[in-house]
Design goal:
Blueprint (H helix, E strand, L loop, with lengths): L15 H9 L2 H12 L3 H10 L5 H15 L5 E2 L6 E2 L4 H13 L6
Antiparallel strand pairs: 1-2
Amino acid sequence: MDIELPIDNIYSNLEAEWAKFVQQMQPLHWEGLAVLLHEQDIVNRLDTVARSSYITANQLIDEINTFALNSIGDVVIDTSSEIPVIEMEDIENLRMLMQWAIDHTLVYQ
């Protein structure tokens, strides 16, 4: 007999803060995060991702940073320069989360 586990169990191997962050993310946010992690043609690619949902790149970044602020207590994207970048202290965690999301089919490659 197969027992279905609650969906929350897929987050059990994440730290609580990052699990809360992941639960807020929608496909649009994952796409934006992937662009930032890839670090190539960020401005144009972020704009394309954001426009697909009728928002601006700044709104997309603000949403991701709001999710981060509400869950881990700090922003993950630095917007102080013309080109937004992932905060250095968060790069590894976000790369691991991106891979986790791909492995759990929350993000399609």
